[in-house]
Amino acid sequence: MNDVVNLLKSHKSVRKFKAVSVEEEKIKEIIECAQSASTSSYIQAYTIIRINNMEKRRSIANLSGNQKYIEECPLFLIFCADLNRLKIACEMNNKVFVEGYVETFILSTVDVTLAAQNALIAAESMGLGGVYIGGIRNNPDKISELLKLPTNVYPVFGMCLGYPDEDTGNKLRLPMEIVLKTDYYTSDDDVEMLKEYDEQIKNYYIKRTNGQRADTWTNQVGSLMSNPQRPHMKDFLKEQGFKMK
Amino acid sequence: MNDVVNLLKSHKSVRKFKAVSVEEEKIKEIIECAQSASTSSYIQAYTIIRINNMEKRRSIANLSGNQKYIEECPLFLIFCADLNRLKIACEMNNKVFVEGYVETFILSTVDVTLAAQNALIAAESMGLGGVYIGGIRNNPDKISELLKLPTNVYPVFGMCLGYPDEDTGNKLRLPMEIVLKTDYYTSDDDVEMLKEYDEQIKNYYIKRTNGQRADTWTNQVGSLMSNPQRPHMKDFLKEQGFKMK
User: Fold this and answer.
1) Per-residue pLDDT tens for B134-176?
2) Where along chain A do its domains lie?
3) Which of B26, B60, B27, B238 is nearest to B138 (CA)?
4) What is the CATH number of domain A3-169+230-239?
5) CB–CB of B245 and A229 under 8 A?
6) pLDDT per residue over B82-103, tens digit each?
């Protein structure tokens, strides 16, 4: 197991940070690493917005389910899927940008996620820690207004970064057999495997909370998925130019 | 600049591989790294399908724009966004899975992409190389049939992996100033910066092709984006349970 594998396997989300700035040189390296990620057909369809303004941070924290660490972290980035730049590229070459296909939505969402994961790994390699903030999609319209996002750009997630001031444990992942299949998809043994996994997760929670919590994985994610997820997203995205054609 | 940053910055897509298998122990490590990536609310909404069957590989290559390296690479993985497992989790807890929100589509697409990027980085750290295959979305219905994907699962991209048998150059990324903004989005200087970037890219192509090709970045991506992108995706996804509600 080499150092990179070690780093990747020891990932854990960090939400509590030391009151120490992240060095500008490191931030530059982090963004360079983000940009080095693969990109579909070279389109590089993302923009990263670094939020320095503390008032903005406060607003974003409030709009994202009151996640305090958005205010507290030394470095807060918002990763946007960006097709606006490609529209500009079209205009520069007297071409007409074709808007609104779901495929283009996928392209930009995948592109920005690849870049973000590179950023997080680079940061972690420097002793920093961080967490993704999907909560910015709680109020994507207000976030977009704050960030002055044009059409064909949407905020996918935020990322808090800084020097860790907590040591959380890794969360046990699904058994590999359930996530990795060979040649075709089958879920024949999933229920059995999930039951075993549930037991492990339950024991983990019991141990970590001194018996206060004994939830299973399937119950936890089942509760989540039996409720509509951010039902405002469709209208927001449509308004923003992502018409899901 | 540490070793990880070095590795991330030196990424290049590899499409030509030595006829050497990837060790099973390494494959296991790669998948473990994939699973260690962040996951939204712990949902782990993806399944990785390893394609060993050579007939299947041939079919997939044909369906993905005749990309020969899908057949030739020692290890070929297909990364699927997977909500089916979460549906099973609902059923195990007598809950009703809510299908079809665009937000859930985002959650699973982001989750699978984070995992995939970890897989690629892990592989690269072991001396392997690889390339993402978005081409599997050329014929997602036939690919899904081949892989026996149930509803609420869709194939996002493939990944070819193996020991590199070519040494391609890195492709120059956009200037950082255009990708990284502070506090809010602005594209005021984008055209100027893109013109400069275009010059650099043009010179790169001229040099690499001995003057045969002199394309600019904006022309290249503009040509792409002035054509509808995979317009079949909407209907395919709808059929597959991703109704973009």
Assistant:
1) 999 999 999 999 999 999 999 999 999 999 999 888 889 999 9
2) 3-169+230-239, 176-214
3) B60
4) 3.40.109.10
5) no
6) 999 999 999 999 999 999 999 9
